[in-house]
Structures are given as structure tokens and as C-alpha cells.
Amino acid sequence: MLLSLTGVALLLLIRPWKRKKVLLLAQHVHIGGTASYFRGLCTYFYERGYEIQLLLRKREFTPEVASFLESMPCRWQIVDHELDHLEYWYDRKHVLRFYFLYDFLQQSLYVGKILLRSRASLLFVSNAYPGDLFPVFLLPVHTRFVIHSMPWGRLDRGNRYILEKMIRFFPQRVRLATVSAFAKNRILHHWQVEGLNNQLSFLYNYSPLANISPSYPERNHKDITVLTAGSVIGTKNPALWIRVAKALINCYPGVQFVWAGEGTLLNVCRNEAQNCPNIKLPGKVADMAGLYSRADIYFQPSKWESQGLAVLEAMSFGLPCVVTSNGGTAEMVVDGITGMLAEPDDEQAFISHLEQLINDAATLQEMGKQAFHRFQTEFSRNRWYARIDEFIEK
């Protein structure tokens, strides 16, 4: 196996490539913010003139993903289990170290062979699980690695060793990015990898769902709709969301709360809200742009967010955002200017912020305009493309 890996490495180093080609290794492409990011990334590479080869996991290759890829001039390969071995052995490495090492090399060799066939000069990884897929750093190709989630513990010894050695000996070849300054600081704190601070940047995401109109979408704010988007899961704080919604609807019967998205707690929340017709949980919504256009306020009380892509989408549609202060959302929203921040467990603060916007149409309108302007100047597609350009070429 070592000879095979060496052969792949030599061929990748000496074979000349005539056209820009990228091998995009993406995780979690079927749901949530990483799905939006994946679609935006494919569009970016296409518009930048790259020939695109995709490596996708079988369990994530949904009809929606297939439909999107059919509209893109790219090739893709479906992986059944080849990139899952490493995850399988993580919990067993203290007993089966030999098999862990074997699988580590096997994963590198597998991706290396695909790189060789695709003749890609760039390997771009969209990583949803911090610490996964690090064996690709062994490959002698320019690698750009974007980490979407935040770690909650130390990096395992094998991956830490690889990162430290690659940073020490090949600093120009390996670059990592995450999606906010908050996420970067969390990675540095938990992983404790020597030299990582200089190799890890943060690169705010962009969603192709965002409104690209240069003009602010006017609203009359007659009947207030408070919108939330994203998976209905524990980290999104749905229990607090339900309590806040009920408290405000009791005071303002004309206000509606809508949460668009699927998730493990969707049915639980539907049961909690079944006697309150002004609370709507429709599940997955195809026309999210329509929902953003009809809403008046965006509300996201998550326990934490690495960035909060739906917040950017809401800003692009001119919605003032009342969101958690814990995480990357605090970097998107300027408190008191484009929206309001609150600690994720401060139920009364969320109620107070939303009540202020419900009662003050002028403030609601002004914050919406400021949110729209901030998106246009800081988080637009052109700004994101420029950041990706710099990340790849740096």
C-alpha cells in the first residue's frame, strides 16, 4: 500500500495539467447550510472556469442533489463506504491501532487515485464533521479545506500529527478555513495544533438562495410574520422558540410565527403548538425565497451557531434579525443597527426585542434597510467570490 501511495504521489507531482480542474470532496450536501454552501461552491467553480469533479457520499445523494447536479457541467462519483471507514474506527482506535493506520492510508490512496484520474490541480474539501477527512492532507496537491462546524473536544493524535507536520514542512500547500471568527477561535482552543493559527482563516459563507436584487424590498408591515429557517433540532433552541411565540401571540393575536425546516424535533414542536394556529411549522419549504419576501422579522434563538447562513439570507431580503449572541450570528448582525442580539437562554430579552419591532414600524423598517445594506456591502456573492479567490490563490 505504501508503494501504491508513493506512486500516486509521484504521478500527481510530475504530471502537467493543461486546464484548471478541481476535485470537490463535499459532505452533508443534502440538508442545511452546508447544502446551500455546496451549491454556491459548484456555481463559483463553474463561473471561474474550472472543470469540476465531485466526490459525494451515497447516503447524501438525494433526488434534489441529483437534480441540481444535472443542471451543472460537472462529473461526479458516488462513494458508498470508502470514506466512512475512518469514522468507523475512531471509537476503536485505542484497541485497533493497526487497523486505524491501515484505514488512514487507504483513505488517502482512494482519494489520490481519483485525483490522478481527474487530473485535478486543486483539492477542495467542504467538511461538515471537524476532524474528518484529514488524510487528504497527505496528498501532494494544493488542498483547501473548509470546516463548517465547531469541534467540542481535542483533535485525535493521528490527525493532529498530520496537521502539525504538514504545516511545518508544506505550509503553502495546505490551507484551512472556517466560517466565522467565533468558529476559528473555538478550533484553535480545542485542537491546540502548533502553527495552526497562521494556516486557519475564516471565510464567511454565502447562500445562492440570497436575494441578489440591488434594491431594498419594501413592505407594509401590516400583519407581522416572524420567520425562522433551519433544522428543528435541539441546538436551534426550539423549546424557547415555542415559549417566546406563545407569549407574544397572547399579547398580539395578529402576529404569526413560522419555522420552515425539518428535523428530529419537528413533530414534538408541532404537538406543542397544535392549539395555537398562529404558530406554523410547515416542514421543508420549496419556496424559501417567497417566505423571506413575505416575512417581517427574522428570529433565530439558537444555543450556538458556527455562522448562521439563514441569517444572511434573511438580511438579503431586508429583514431585521433577532438572533443569538453566541456564535457567528453576532458577527453577521450589528446589535441595535441591523437587528438585536440576546443570550440563548434569555427568553425575556428575545420577547422584549421582538415586541419592540412589532410595536415600532419605523425601527423595524430602518433595521431592515440596514440589514439589507450590510448584506450588500459585506456578504454579497461578489464579496464571497473574492474571498474564495484569495483563499485558493493565497
Automatic annotation (TrEMBL):
<dbReference type="Pfam" id="PF00534">
    <property type="entry name" value="Glycos_transf_1"/>
</dbReference>
<keyword id="KW-0808">Transferase</keyword>
<protein>
    <submittedName>
        <fullName>Glycosyltransferase involved in cell wall biosynthesis</fullName>
    </submittedName>
</protein>
<dbReference type="GO" id="GO:0016757">
    <property type="term" value="F:glycosyltransferase activity"/>
</dbReference>
<dbReference type="InterPro" id="IPR001296">
    <property type="entry name" value="Glyco_trans_1"/>
</dbReference>
<feature type="domain" description="Glycosyl transferase family 1">
    <location>
        <begin position="219"/>
        <end position="372"/>
    </location>
</feature>
